[in-house]
Amino acid sequence: MVSASAVFLAAYMVLGLALAYLLITKRAPRAWRNLWLAIHILLRIAAQISSVGFGVEGFRNVNWMYAYFVLGVEGTTSIIICWARFFIAFQMKVWGNSYLEPRRPEGMSTWRYQLYSLSSPVVFGHIFIITANVLLVVGGVVSLNNHTDTDDEYHPTKNTLGLRVAAYALFMSIVQSIAAYTIVEIRKCVSHGLKHTCLKIVLLVWPFLTIRVIFGILSCTVDIFDLNNPALYTSLDGFPSSYVAAESCLGIFPEFASATFLVISNSLWNHIQPAQDIEQTQTELQTDLLKADTPK
């Protein structure tokens, strides 16, 4: 477990340095989406440090396990929010507005806009994400908290299964919704003749986060992945290598790949041209052509 955790710890640190370089050199804007991306990277670095600690001490110090679980949940939540922010930012950049999070109309007061924004899709998305996050943390911690000081053994319970499955179901609905919005937006860009390479890279996050959420559901229902399975707690040294491998490949790697694609899309962000500028350029070009064809 220590070696796998150390690999991802180093990988996330490199990714964090890459994001910092893009921000410092102004190749990527200092915007909300990059704040969420930075938060995800920091949470994952902290989670991997906790994983290394748990790999060294095992169940002799369960605080490492609790820290890794909670930080991991927050890491999953933050990368989903970050993905949504990238989509909204693309719409804002190209069209000047986003139907997921509309700008305040001219002349509308602040308080009226606050009421108006409550009906926007992004608000409902945040409610779903927060609900899923709370359900997952509560369900997971309660499930892992069945430890007795008398026999140093874990006795996980199944009474939180519904909470965790419901949480991942909400995550799945959000991930598939963002993917659908992105596909529709790509088709819209194609129909208007707009470049959308950056958005295609953002869409690459979709299969990886889908795998991550599917693994979350499996971790609630399949014994070899389920933290409620007593067979995972037979050794004080930590979880079996089979569980560690599954967590690394199906849990951590998809999130790391998603964050990597978002960092790559950042490097191309300044090349996105607003639709208004393209239309203005086309109008000016047509005007110049008409002038050239007009006989003197």
UniProtKB/TrEMBL annotation:
Coiled coil: none annotated. Keywords: Membrane, Transmembrane, Transmembrane helix. The chain crosses the membrane at residues 6-24, 36-54, 66-88, 122-145, 165-186, 198-218. The keyword 4Fe-4S does not apply. It comes from the Eukaryota. This is Uncharacterized protein. It comes from Tortispora caseinolytica NRRL Y-17796.
